[in-house]
Every structure is written in C-alpha cells, then in structure tokens.
Protein: Alpha/beta superfamily hydrolase
Organism: Flavobacterium granuli
Amino acid sequence: MKHLLIVLLAFFSISCFSQIKTINFDSGKLQGKRELYISLPASYEKNPTKRYPLIVLMDGDYLLNPVLGALNYGNHWDDLPEVIIVGISQGKNDQRSIDCGLDEVTGMPDGKSVDFFDFISLELIPFMQHDYRTTNFKIIAGHDTTAAFSNFFLYKENSLFDAYICLSPELPVNMENVLPDILASTKNSIFYYLSTADGDNKKMQERIKNIDTKIQANKNPNLNYKFENFNDASHFSLVLHSIPTALYQIFAVAQPISVLEYSTKIVTLKEGYVDYLKNKYDIIENSFGIKTPIRITDFQAIEAAIIENKDYNELDALAILADKNYPKSMLGDYQLATMFEKKGDNPRAVRYYMSGFNKEEIAGLTKDMMFAKAEELKKTFAKKPKIKGKVGQDVEPKQEVIEETPVSDTPAADAPVSEEKKQ
C-alpha cells in the first residue's frame, strides 16, 4: 500500500519533472512504423554534457506512468537518479501477442517475434544511443507476456541489458529450467527483479515461485537478485507495488549514505573511511555511467565516522576530496580546521576557519559560523606576560636587594661598656 500511494502521489508531478514526447519510429525489422514514448529528464536541456541510464519499457502504453511516478518521487529525495525512458507501444490490435509470440514446442521466439527481438536490439537501442545522451547502463521491464519475452535477451552470450524488471512473467516452455542456469553462470554483472502475487493465475504463480527457488539455490556474486510475492495484490496492482522496489534495488548503491549503511558498513571500519567514500562513487560511475559530485550529506557521514573513531588524520584526505568536488566552497577548510581543533592545535585551526571564511558558504556551513569558531578558539591561546623594554631586548626581572648590617669590632657609641674595661 505504501508503494501504491507513493506512485499515485508522484503522478501529479510527472509533468514538472520530465519531458515526454511521442514519435513514430520507422522500423525495417517490423516493416512499418512503431509508436514510441520518450521521456527525458528535467535536467536534460540544462546540462548538455550529462548522460543518463536508459530504461526500455515493453508495454509502454501502461507501464510508462508507474515507472515515471516512482522515478520522479525517488529523484525528488535524491534516492534515484534521473534516467531516459523509451516506452514501446504494444497495446493496439493485439500487438503484444504478435510481438511476443512463441513456438509452442520450443518456447522460443518465432516469426514476427524474432523481428521484434531484432527491432529492440538492432534498431531501438542504437537509435536511442545515437540520438540521446545515454550511458551504457540499460534496463528492460515488462509485465506477464512481455516480462517473459525480455528474458530472451539473457539467452545471448553477452546480455544486451544490465538489469531486468520481470513483473509476473507468463513463462514459456522450459524457461524455469533454462533461466536459473543462465543466471547462475553469468560472468557479467546482472540485476534481476522478479515478482508475483496471490492474484496471479495459480499455475503461473507456482512456476514463478519454482524459478525463484532455483535461482536462490545457485549463488552467483555477479547476480544481484530480488524476489517478491505480494499477498494482497492482483495481477495488475502488483505492478504498482513492484516498480519502486525494483528501481531501489537496481540503484541502491547510487543512493545517499543511509543510517543503516552508516551503522553497519562505515562507522564499524577501523580505517579507510575516505577510501570507502571514493569507492562508492567509483562504483556509481562504473556501474551506471553516472558521474556526479559527492553529496554533501555523504561528506558529513564520513566526517562523523572519522570523529567518532577519533581517526582525525583522515580529515586531511577528506578535505582534499572536498576541494576537488567543491573547490570554491569552505568545506575543505572546515574539515582541516576541525582536524587541527580535535588534535589540540588551535592556532592552526583558527587559520583554516578564517581561510574558509573567505570562501563560498555550503550546506550548513556559513561565514558567521566560521568566524565564531575562530574567535572562540583564539580565547584559548596562552597569554604571554607583558615585558617593559625595547622589542627584542631581554630584561631581567627586578630583584629585591636585602642589605645586611656589617659586623664591626668597634662598639657603637651607645653600647654598654663592661666593668673589666672600665678598670
């Protein structure tokens, strides 16, 4: 129910976050025109050098809005990246049955479905990569008949897609035996999401659960796999429940550092906090082709872990990374100032607080705060005694002279004289 509400709420803001256009693509493989729905991210025109992952939607007529809703909601909270979507129209004149028709004996594409397979791999993908700024990371999604058909791209030695969203697939002959073996032996990094619901045809549901059991039995480090069975969903409402989970599974590493990630993976480290942060963003770039500055919140999470573990020297490396990502901001100076302050070197901490004061504010760091921190630390400096004299002249402190009465053999005039001397 939570996912359903998320998607419904996001529908109201779809037009604010994306551009959708319909084009008629002239296909040689299909020997005719095919309607496509193309959704570009809101930043596409504003950022002419940025590239985006690509999602290919089978059943684009009705899957486009649920996928857009989940993506826009997740992107609003910086949990999901912006992507380019191309939806394939298949809802007219029983087109999806023609596109995905299979041989009843072999369960493999046959006739027109081979042409449709080639249309996606040899025409649609090259067209999207040529005309739009896509990264090499590609996702395909489908529902029942089209979900099962999308699995045939895995049958190739090198899968065309990096991630599969398979919603209640209507499995053809022998797919529950072939697909688990493929996923168990793949040497490529693959994301695979599979779902079913109590509202599915019971025989179909049993076969989907069977394929899940087989996939779970074969552990492959190259496979990122997730299965969900929804108790209170129909064959159609399952779509609204599944899509957010599938997208969050695929793009999990691209999300900001969460409380769970911090407590289980970061603060428990004995060292290498900055390396962890670098590796996280290297994985994002290498996996999805997304090159983005490190989030301020992620800098703050690593800083907190460093301070909690009292490994203050790592703040130096964190400051270098901050200057690389936000060169005009005070972030790097703040982290150096914090390092020296924690190490008890207040004069140098003041120097960096004041250096940061002259740079751009960022997140919660302000000029007033940097100045206040510097002034507060100045009060801790040791006070030197005031010395009179010329500059550079050492003056011995004045000492009190105590004079003693000299000892004399001659008695004083008023001293008493003894009786012996009188005589």
User: Anything to note?
Assistant: The chain has two domains: 2-254, 259-378. The longest helix spans residues 112-131.
